[in-house]
Automatic annotation (TrEMBL):
Organism lineage string: Bacteria, Pseudomonadati, Bacteroidota, Cytophagia, Cytophagales
Cellular compartments per GO CC: plasma membrane
GO annotation, biological process: lipopolysaccharide biosynthetic process
Naturally occurring in which organism (per UniProt): Algoriphagus aquimarinus
Annotated TM spans: 7-27, 47-64, 76-97, 103-120, 127-145, 151-182, 194-213, 246-268, 280-299, 305-324, 336-356
Domain Glycosyltransferase RgtA/B/C/D-like: 53-211
Secretion signal span: none
GO MF term set: pentosyltransferase activity
Keyword Nucleus: no
Alphabetic keyword roster: Cell membrane, Glycosyltransferase, Membrane, Transferase, Transmembrane, Transmembrane helix
The protein's name: Phospholipid carrier-dependent glycosyltransferase
Membrane topology classification: Multi-pass membrane protein
Subcellular location: Cell membrane
Keyword Amino-acid biosynthesis: no
Length: 502
C-alpha cells in the first residue's frame, strides 16, 4: 500500500524556506525600508487611537516588534514575515476543512505563488494584517455557518474587529456574508449568529470613531477623496481616460495573481458552471465583490494595484480544488506556474548567489524595482556626518515629502522626530503633528534633504544658508540618484502650502 504524502510537513518545509529567503532579503545592506513601511514605523513612535489615513494596528504591531527587536529592518518586517506564514496556514487549514489536505497544501502553495502574497508577507504594510484577518474571518465565519455554533461567530467577530483596526476596507466582509446567507437561503437560521457577529465586530470601529471625532473626521474626507468624490471642480467625462484607468486596473489585478497562473484560471473559468455549490460560491464571492467594487471605482479615479487583493486568498483554494481533479497537461501547467511564480521573486529578493543578476536586463529590472527602497541608510549616514563635522547635532531635519522625512527618522542615529514642509502635496499625518512652526524666530539650524527640490524656497525662509551639497547614492555600484542636503540657520518665516485636498 502506497504511503500518502505528508502534506502538513511539505507545507512547513516550503513555508519556512520562504521565511528564510525573506530574512536574507531583509538583511541585504543595500535595501532600506520601503517608504510606506518607514511612515508606519514613525507612527509607532507617535502612538494614537488612529491616524490620518489608516487605523492603528500597523503602528501597534511595529511598536511591539521594535520594542523586542529594536528599530531595525527586521524589527519592522518580522510582522510581514509572521503574518505571511499565518495567511498561508489559514489557507491550508481552510482548504483542508473544505476538501482535503492535498487541496489545502496546493491552495497554500498557489497562494504563495501570487505576487499579492509576496507583497503582503515581505513588506509590513496595512495590507499585511488586513489580508490575514480577512481570510481568518472568512474561515471562522464559514465554520460558524456550517456548524451553527455561536463560538465560531464570536471568534470571527473578534478577528473582523482586528481587521477593521488594520484597514477600514475590512468592512466589505459584512455585505459579503449577508449576501451569501441570503443567496443560500440560510438567513433565517443564521440571523442571530450574524447579528452577534456584527455586534462583536463593532469593537473595531471604536479607535476610528474616537480619533475622527477629535480630528474633524479627516479620515472620512481622505477616503472620499481617494474614491474620486469631493475633488472640487468637475471635469468633463473623458472616455479615453476612463478606459485607460480601467485597463490599467485589469492588468494590475491579473499581474497580482501571477501571469504564470493565468492558464489555470482560464481552465477553471471554462468549467466554472460545474462548480456552483455553496462552498465554491463562498470562496469566489469575496474576490468577485472586491474586484467588481474597485473596478467600478477605477472608472472614477485611479486605483492602486494592491487595494482589492486582500480578498483574493480564497481564490487559491478554488483553483487548488479544481486543479487537484485534473491530469496531464494541467498538472504540468500547475507545476511550471508555481515554480516560475516563486522563482522570479526569489531571484530579485535573494542576494546574488549566481551569475543571473549580472545579466543586464535583470540587473536593470532589480535596480528599478528597488529604487524606492535604496539609498536611505547612506544618505542618513551623510547627514549624521555633517551634523557632527559642522557642529549642528541639535539641528532639526526636514523634507518636502513624508517619504523622505520618515526614512530619515528611521535611519538617523537616535531616531529623531523629523518634519515635513508641505510644498504642494495632499494632506497627510505630518500636517497633524507639531511642525516646523515651532522653530520660527529661534536661533537653531535646520537640515533640508530632498530628492526633488534644490531648496525649501518660499515655504520656509531662513536667515542664512550655511552649507549645501548634492549627495549621490548608488545601487550595486551604479548611480541611482542625487539628494540635495542644505544646512540652514535661523528660520525667519514658515509659510507651508495649505492643502485643501485629502
Amino acid at each position: 500500500m502506497q504511503k500518502s504524502p505528508n502534506y502538513t510537513l511539505y507545507f512547513w518545509l516550503i513555508t519556512l524556506g520562504l521565511v528564510v529567503s525573506k530574512m536574507l532579503f531583509t538583511f541585504r545592506p543595500e535595501i532600506s525600508l520601503f517608504t510606506e513601511e518607514a511612515q508606519y514605523w514613525l507612527w509607532s513612535q507617535n502612538m494614537a487611537w488612529h491616524y490620518y489615513s489608516k487605523p492603528p494596528l500597523v503602528a501597534v504591531l511595529n511598536y511591539i516588534s521594535t520594542a523586542i527587536l529594536g528599530n531595525s529592518e527586521i524589527g519592522v518586517r518580522i510582522n510581514a514575515i509572521v503574518f505571511g506564514v499565518g495567511i498561508s496556514w489559514v489557507t491550508f487549514i481552510f482548504g483542508t476543512y473544505l476538501f482535503s489536505k492535498k487541496v489545502g497544501f496546493w491552495a497554500s502553495l498557489l497562494l504563495q505563488s501570487m505576487p499579492l502574497w509576496w507583497l503582503a508577507s515581505t513588506f509590513h504594510m496595512t495590507d499585511t494584517s488586513l489580508t490575514f484577518f480577512w481570510i481568518l474571518s472568512v474561515y471562522l465565519a464559514y465554520r460558524g455557518i456550517r456548524e451553527q455554533k455561536m463560538s465560531w461567530w464570536i471568534l470571527a467577530g473578534l478577528t473582523t474587529a482586528f481587521g477593521l483596526m488594520a484597514k477600514m476596507v475590512m468592512i466589505l466582509v459584512f455585505p459579503f456574508l449577508l449576501f451569501f446567507l441570503l443567496y443560500t437561503k440560510e438567513w433565517a437560521i443564521q440571523k442571530k449568529y450574524f447579528l452577534s457577529y456584527i455586534l462583536v465586530s463593532a469593537i473595531g470601529f471604536l479607535p476610528m470613531l474616537i480619533w475622527n471625532w477629535q480630528n474633524g473626521f479627516d479620515t472620512f474626507k481622505h477616503l472620499a477623496a481617494l474614491s474620486g468624490a469631493g475633488e472640487g471642480d468637475s471635469t468633463p467625462f473623458d472616455v479615453g481616460k476612463v478606459a485607460k484607468q480601467f485597463f490599467e486596473y485589469l492588468g494590475g489585478q491579473l499581474a497580482m495573481v501571477s501571469v504564470f497562473l493565468l492558464p489555470l484560471f482560464g481552465g477553471f473559468l471554462v468549467k466554472i458552471k460545474k462548480y456552483r455549490d455553496s462552498k465554491f460560491i463562498y470562496l469566489l464571492l469575496p474576490a468577485v465583490m472586491s474586484w467588481a467594487g474597485f473596478a467600478f471605482l477605477s472608472l472614477l479615479t485611479s486605483i492602486e494595484v494592491n487595494w482589492p487583493v486582500f480578498a483574493y486568498s480564497s481564490l487559491a483554494i478554488v483553483l487548488a480544488a479544481w486543479v487537484c481533479e485534473q491530469k496531464g497537461v494541467w498538472i504540468k501547467l500547475r507545476n511550471w506556474g508555481v515554480g516560475l511564480s516563486i522563482f522570479v521573486p526569489l531571484l530579485f529578493l535573494l542576494p546574488d548567489f549566481t551569475f543571473l543578476k549580472s545579466i543586464a536586463p535583470i540587473k536593470k529590472a532589480e535596480k528599478s524595482a528597488f529604487r524606492r527602497m535604496s539609498g536611505y541608510q547612506p544618505l542618513a549616514d551623510r547627514v549624521a556626518f555633517l551634523q557632527d563635522s559642522l557642529g549642528v547635532k541639535d539641528a532639526y531635519v526636514f523634507s518636502e515629502t513624508y517619504h523622505m522625512a520618515s526614512e530619515l527618522a528611521f535611519y538617523l542615529p537616535g531616531n529623531p522626530q523629523t518634519y515635513m514642509v508641505n510644498m504642494g502635496s495632499r494632506k497627510n499625518q505630518f500636517d497633524l503633528w507639531p511642525g516646523l512652526e515651532q522653530f520660527v524666530g529661534k536661533e537653531q539650524q535646520g537640515i533640508f534633504v530632498s530628492w526633488n527640490y534644490e531648496e525649501p524656497g518660499e515655504f520656509a525662509t531662513f536667515q542664512k544658508l550655511r552649507y549645501e551639497e548634492h549627495f549621490q547614492v548608488f545601487f550595486q555600484g551604479e548611480k541611482l540618484r542625487d539628494a540635495t542636503i542644505q544646512v540652514w540657520e535661523n528660520m525667519e518665516r514658515y509659510d507651508p502650502y495649505i492643502s485643501d485636498t485629502y
